[in-house]
Amino acid sequence: MNRRNFIRILSQSVVAAALLPRAAAAQEKRPLQFVFAQIKYRGGDWNPHPLAITPLMEELMLRTSVEAATVRQEVAITDRNLFNYPFLYMTGKYEFEPFTQEEIEILRRFLSYGGFLLVDDALGQQGYGFDKALRTEIQRIFPNNELKRLPSGHAALRSYYLMRRIGGARMVNPNLEGITIGNTTPVIYCQNDLGGAWERDQLGKWTNACTPGGEEQRRDAFHLGINLILYAMTENYKDDLIHVPFIRKRLTK
Q1: Are residues 82 and 40 in contact, defined by beta-carbon separation less than 8 angstroms?
Q2: What are phi and psi of 225, to 5 degrees?
Q3: What is the band of 234 on the pLDDT scale with cuts at 50, 70, 90?
Q4: pLDDT for 53-68, tens place per residue?
Q5: 201 DSSP 8-state letter
Q6: Which residues pair with 89 in a beta bridge?
Q7: H-state helical runs in 41-146
Q8: What is the overall mean pLDDT for the chain?
Q9: Which residues, in sequence order, are CB contacts of 68 under 8 Å at separation 6+?
Q10: pLDDT for 22-47, tens place per residue?
Q11: How far is CA 87 from the centre of its chain?
Q12: Which of these, 215, 218, 213, 214, lies nearest to 193 by C-alpha position?
């Protein structure tokens, strides 16, 4: 299922309900849940923060009216069910094995037909380890495109919260990068270790400190995660709303 069909199916339930109070939205029947799908690849470390996703899903349901599965779905690129998930997450610390040509073609088709990929560098060393391998593979997927800095007014930074800062466990890059095709950005890349900021241990304690900004930086990481999920589900829906000038005015303050 591509993202546009997913949006069409959920337009009367999950997406609309995300902007309503939970009490009112609870009266609506929503047969589908948002599923956070994480790519399991070969080599490197595809799972540096195994407990990161449940806290994010809990925060998503607390702050919005999106119903979500609290447990992530692990998926290989060649999995027959890949196209059932309009949102994919890929993270890691170290260099990983190059994708096969089949995997490159699958990802190109997935991302060109409406799918979304959030990439999260858990190491945070530019030009080394995961960052180095990731940039090579993205170039193979989109040889005529490249990762570029997202502008501050990008829809992903205002799909729910008005983001002025990019959070994470560490501040490596104050900006997001992305691959933009037409009016959509199917790939967004963060180098600040979002998963490290989201992760709690089994006792409910934060696994990692957020430096140098502390808990405010962690809050920004959660807000960004929620924004990117809603962006993946709705594309640029706020570009069509009458309150866009008001949002832009606030962003310039």
Answers
A1: no
A2: -60, -45
A3: confident
A4: 999 999 999 999 899 9
A5: -
A6: 38, 118
A7: 53-63, 101-112, 129-141
A8: 85
A9: 33, 34, 35, 36, 57, 60, 61
A10: 434 444 444 478 999 999 999 999 99
A11: 7
A12: 218
- Check if the beta carbon of residue 130 is closer than 8 Å to that of residue 47: no
Name which of 227, 219, 226 is nearest 156 in CA terms: 227
Task: Give the separation between CA 198 and CA 176, rounded to whole angstroms.
Answer: 17
The burial of 21, by beta-carbon neighbours within 10 Å (0-12 exposed, 13-18 middle, 19 or more buried), is given as: exposed
From 30, 4, 82, 14, select the one nearest 230 (Cα to Cα): 14
Which tokens go with 71? 């447990």
Q: Which two tokens stand for residue 106?
A: 């699958």
Q: Structure tokens of 39?
A: 């790519």
**Could you tell me how many residues make up the chain?**
253
Backbone angles phi, psi at 41, to 5 degrees: -115, 180
Phi first, then psi, for residue 94 (nearest 5°) are: -120, 170
Q: Please give the structure tokens belonging to residue 111.
A: 């991302």
- Give all strands of the β-sheet with 177-181 in edge-to-edge order: 73-75, 37-39, 87-92, 116-121, 184-190, 177-181, 148-149
Domain ranges, ordered by start, for the chain: 3-251
CATH homologous superfamily, domain 3-251: Domain of unknown function DUF4159 (3.40.50.12140)
Residue 242 vs residue 178, higher pLDDT: 178
List, for residues 138-188, the tens digit of each pLDDT value: 999 999 999 999 999 999 999 999 999 999 999 999 999 999 998 899 999
Contact 232, 88 (CB under 8 A): no
